[in-house]
Amino acid sequence: MSPADRCLKVLYQLQEEGQEATTTAVAARLGVRASSVTEMFQRLERKGLVRYTPYRGVELTPKGWERAAEIVRHHRLLELYLHRHLGYPLERVHGEAERLQSVISEEFEERIARLLGEPEYDPHGGPIPRRDGSVPELVALPLGALRLGQEAIVRRVRDHNVGTLAELVRLGLLPQQRCRLCGRQSGHGAYLLAIAGELVYLSGAVAGAVFVEPL
């Protein structure tokens, strides 16, 4: 994937997560220097893909959103295909899709979409952008927003960190799983959950990757 497309994808993700797309935030996601990100913002702005305000960050233009949504659509369709039809473990599909997303053709994308039954969500619960760039609705709050004793269904888990995702797979805390918040340690950001009749402990880092729909 080109550096420009990687940057657009990160901007899409930050906007999706409701986070500000600052130079620092984008540099952290891409693993590059802030100065490199600033140069990329300037190049993308010249192409009409972003609106850049120095020291404040960027936002995608309609043209930039369309391009970014297409990249994300490729990625999330590939994740679901790899998991459902090729048996890839959930914690490995993100990396594999990253390598494939920029080389598949539009025809290949269409064939995958039809084979999968025009899915709306990837295996992590991430909404798959539609062909027109619109996005399926996702009702999901951070796990920490639950009240003690409240039940919920997991709707999405973040896939940025392989170790965290592997822990969620081990615990079975994945999309469509019901859970109940039984306790929390505010000083440590840790949680105690009931999952399938068992009590499990979640560190703050792992819990931060889980988004749920309260029941």
What would the keywords be for this entry?
SH3 type barrels; two-stranded antiparallel ribbon; single chain; 8 helices; Arc Repressor Mutant, subunit A; 8 strands; six-stranded antiparallel beta sheet; alpha+beta; 215 residues
How would you describe this structure to a colleague?
This protein is 44% helix and 19% strand. The chain has 215 residues and is of the alpha+beta class. Among the domains are: 3-60, Winged helix-like DNA-binding domain superfamily/Winged helix DNA-binding domain (Arc Repressor Mutant, subunit A), CATH 1.10.10; 141-214, Roll (SH3 type barrels). It has a 6-stranded antiparallel β-sheet. The chain has a two-stranded antiparallel sheet with strand order 1-2. The mean pLDDT is 92.
Question: Could you describe the largest sheet, including whether it forms a barrel?
Answer: 6 strands, antiparallel
* CATH fold naming of the domain at 141-214: SH3 type barrels
Q: From the structure provided, what is the oligomeric state, counting identical versus distinct chains?
A: single chain
Instruction: Report the span from N to C terminus.
Output: 40 Å
What's the CATH architecture of the domain at 141-214?
A: Roll
Q: What is the CATH superfamily classification of the domain at 141-214?
A: Ferrous iron transport protein A (FeoA)
Using the alpha-carbon principal axes, give the shape: globular
Order of helices and strands: HHHEEHHHEEHEEEHE
Q: Tell me the number of helical segments per DSSP (H or I, 4 or more residues long).
A: 8
What is the tally of beta strands? Answer: 8
Helix share of residues? 40-55%
State the strand order across the main sheet.
Answer: 3-8-4-5-6-7
CATH class of the domain at 141-214: Mainly Beta
Work out the strand percent: 15-25%
> What does the average pLDDT come to?
92
Low-confidence stretches: none
- The rounded Rg comes to 18 Å
